[in-house]
Specification:
Elements lengths: L10 E6 L6 H14 L3 E4 L4 H4 L9 H12 L3 E5 L7 H6 L26 H18 L5 E5 L14 H15 L2 H8 L26 H29 L5 E2 L1 E2 L8 H4 L7 E3 L9 H15 L5 E5 L18 H11 L2 E6 L26 H13 L14 E4 L2 H7 L10 H13 L5 E4 L10 E4 L7 H12 L3 E4 L22 H4 L1 E8 L6 E5 L5 E4 L2 E7 L3 E6 L8 E8 L2 E6 L5 H14 L11 E8 L2 E8 L6 E4 L5 E2 L9 E4 L4 E6 L9 E3 L10
Parallel strand pairs: 1-2, 1-9, 2-3, 3-4, 4-5, 6-7, 7-8, 8-9, 10-11, 10-12, 12-13, 13-20
Antiparallel strand pairs: 14-17, 15-16, 15-18, 18-19, 19-20, 21-22, 22-26, 23-25, 23-27, 24-26
């Protein structure tokens, strides 16, 4: 188990690329790192061509020098295996090691991640380089963490070459055993697709029309597993040679191509690269979702924010900077959501290359004239006072069910409508945060017993074991709230017959006859029966028949006027709710508030610009309050008895949180979220903390 205490506090640092700079800069770098409070750097991520300039010829003297220099100045190393970007000689020597797109185009030298994960010679060179690094640095005192490859699947998460086709067939043989089993699972009786020989099976390359949906789904599963095999190759080498050094690889939040629930079990600690758009309307929700997923992947274990931007990135069409204060705020948010390490890409902004306009801790203007440098230096000093937070845990009574298999299945073509999963999940997540909830993410077959409420924004694919898991949860007293178009297919992408969602029909007390897909110019409306409140509905509605459920809202227009739009149903000792349409966020907030109220989960209504997290730290509780708005303050009435986290003094019960303001409030008692009150309008005379 990864032990954050090995780092003597909160990890703080960046990707360090000394090979891009002359040697005389290196000593200035470590001096500035000490000034900024840096205690860990990621080293060697894109150094393969420098470490092995020709096949089998290794040059480590420069890396030895850097490792020694960093250790001399008290800075630890997260040492990369350098396999994320093969050198040009490898592609020249093995032209078939370059990945192929679904259209049959073989990608060329000039970027990064130029490799086919199935290529045997590529795997051999990867293993040899990893062994060389592990052997040379296994006892180096600066080595604190292994960084395998980098951002797997960021650019190439699928390779459609003949080598991957053969690996796919092998993966299918292991999964299904016989062609008869595969033919049934893939439904190959449709369109005369029955396979009589394993060699007939191909990846879902570009075809005349829709490819077989189950073939596409299995291909996504295989592609994730194939890259995972590559990761395991390196991780096994490192664990055999350096069992005392933890191993990680950096994730990308909600990356579509990789099943992170599966991947995370292969890491000693989860690490994340997070780049919320500061030009977006709600970067804190974008960031918070990824933060909460990282914490959830390994059952609440704290994690490392391995990469983020100090200010602007380089790869959006318009790259907004982080205004003064936003970088600090988003790092506090990461701490509040379970991070124990805060690192950046990169230490120095590059002078050349595709990312030369990506911000660094040290900007092009140099440290002395840089607003960014002053902010990162101040944050480094502040973090030394917050080391205690690495021991905090975040109890959540609410979880969102999430599954990469469901994501892949939902977005396969040939559906009633072109639905996208992430906007739905983001909407429900934002609603729960605005109701003051800590939110976990949970796999459909994971342990649900710790939660009072489990939310399914959409669970189009629901395996039989997952359905039984959900049934047990509700029957045992849990509260389920399900979104539309859920429980439609099983793990093979086969429709479950008898009325949707067949596997949960008795749990929900209803069946769905058909879907009303709304065109872009169309809308419907729902009315909540308890309040009379109405909301417009776009994109999707359903024709529902009740078999015991109670109506909580009705559709108001078209042939479904007066028919159920929201329902609730008692099942065993628990209760299940169903939302039969794509409702706006305000409606989701309203409905989830009712769910939380009836489940006796404390809540409060928060403005979207306030991020609140409640954590447990030993015998105390900590409220982490962040005002995400750049210009408007907030007035907050705190629960009684709040202490300033930094100095232990009592805080006034009413405080003003400045724009981009942050407050950490400690309590020597249990705190309920319904004790917190927030006003958008601020009194000019309200005291500040």
């Amino acid at each position: 188990m990864f032990d954050i205490n090995n780092f003597d506090g909160i990890i703080y640092g960046a990707d360090y690329n000394p090979e891009q700079w002359p040697r005389e800069i290196w000593r200035e770098d470590v001096r500035l790192m000490n000034e900024a409070g840096v205690n860990l750097v990621s080293l060697g991520i894109f150094s393969w061509a420098h470490l092995e300039p020709q096949p089998g010829t290794y040059i480590f003297d420069w890396l030895d020098e850097v490792m020694d220099l960093l250790h001399e100045h008290g800075i630890g190393v997260n040492l990369a295996t350098a396999t994320a970007s093969p050198p040009p000689w490898l592609s020249l020597k093995y032209p078939d090691s370059k990945p192929v797109t679904a259209d049959g185009v073989r990608l060329e030298v000039g970027g990064r991640q130029l490799y086919c994960p199935s290529h045997k010679a590529f795997r051999t060179h990867v293993r040899e380089l990893t062994e060389q690094l592990a052997r040379r640095y296994q006892d180096h005192p600066a080595l604190k963490l292994w960084h395998v490859n980098n951002e797997y699947g960021c650019h190439v998460d699928q390779c459609f070459c003949s080598l991957c086709a053969e690996e796919f067939r092998s993966w299918l043989r292991d999964k299904y055993g016989t062609l008869d089993t595969l033919n049934f699972a893939w439904g190959t009786a449709f369109w005369s697709q029955r396979y009589g020989d394993w060699a007939e099976i191909q990846p879902p390359r570009r075809a005349p029309t829709y490819a077989n949906p189950t073939q596409q789904l299995d291909w996504r599963r295989f592609s994730s597993d194939n890259l995972l095999t590559l990761y395991r190759l390196e991780a096994d080498v490192l664990r055999n040679m350096t069992p005392h050094i933890p191993v990680t690889t950096n994730f990308l939040g909600f990356l579509p191509g990789l099943d992170y629930f599966k991947w995370a079990q292969e890491e000693d600690v989860v690490s994340l690269d997070a780049y919320p758009d500061p030009g977006g309307s709600r970067p804190h929700f974008e960031a918070g979702m990824s933060y909460d997923m990282m914490r959830s992947l390994r059952g609440g274990q704290r994690w490392i924010l391995m990469e983020q931007a100090t200010s602007a990135v380089n790869w959006r069409e318009r790259n907004s900077l982080k205004r003064p204060g936003l970088m600090r705020l988003l790092n506090h948010q990461a701490l509040a959501h379970g991070a124990s390490g805060l690192m950046f890409f990169q230490w120095r902004a590059s002078r050349a290359g595709a990312e030369k306009y990506h911000s660094g801790m040290v900007q092009h203007v140099g440290p002395e004239r840089s607003r960014v440098w002053q902010e990162v230096k101040a944050l480094g000093q502040e973090l030394k006072t917050l080391a205690e937070l690495t021991q905090a845990r975040l109890p959540a009574r609410v979880a969102i069910m999430f599954d990469w298999n469901n994501w892949w299945a939902l977005e396969i073509d040939s559906k009633p409508a072109a639905l996208k999963l992430m906007p739905l999940v983001q909407k429900w997540y934002a609603a729960l945060k605005q109701l003051g909830q800590n939110v976990d993410f949970v796999h459909p077959e994971g342990d649900l017993s710790a939660y009072d409420v489990v939310a399914l924004p959409n669970q189009y694919l629901l395996s039989h074991p997952a359905a039984q898991n959900v049934r047990r949860f509700v029957a045992s007293g849990g509260t389920l709230v399900s979104g539309f178009f859920s429980g439609i297919v099983d793990e093979h992408e086969h429709v479950q017959l008898g009325g949707y969602p067949a596997l949960l029909g008795d749990v929900l007390g209803l069946w769905v006859e058909e879907w009303v897909v709304l065109q872009p110019h169309e809308k419907n409306q729902i009315q909540l029966l308890n309040s009379g409140t109405t909301y417009d509905v776009f994109n999707w509605a359903e024709v529902i028949h009740l078999t015991g459920a109670e109506m909580l809202a009705t559709f108001q227009q078209d042939f479904i006027a007066g028919q159920p739009a929201v329902t609730s149903h008692h099942f065993g000792a628990g209760k299940a709710y169903y939302l039969a349409g794509d409702f706006p966020e305000e409606a989701v907030i309203d409905l989830l508030a009712q769910v939380l109220l009836h489940a006796d989960v404390p809540m409060c209504r928060l403005p979207e610009r306030l991020n609140v997290t409640l954590s447990e730290l030993g015998e105390t509780c900590v409220l982490h309050l962040l005002n995400v708005h750049p210009t408007q303050p907030l007035q907050i009435r705190l629960p009684d008895g709040g202490l300033c986290f930094e100095n232990g003094t009592y805080l006034p019960q009413v405080m003003t949180l400045a724009p981009y303001g942050i407050a950490l409030v400690r309590y020597h008692r249990s705190v309920r979220m319904d004790e917190l009150q927030v006003q958008d309008e601020v009194s000019a005379h309200a005291p500040s903390p």
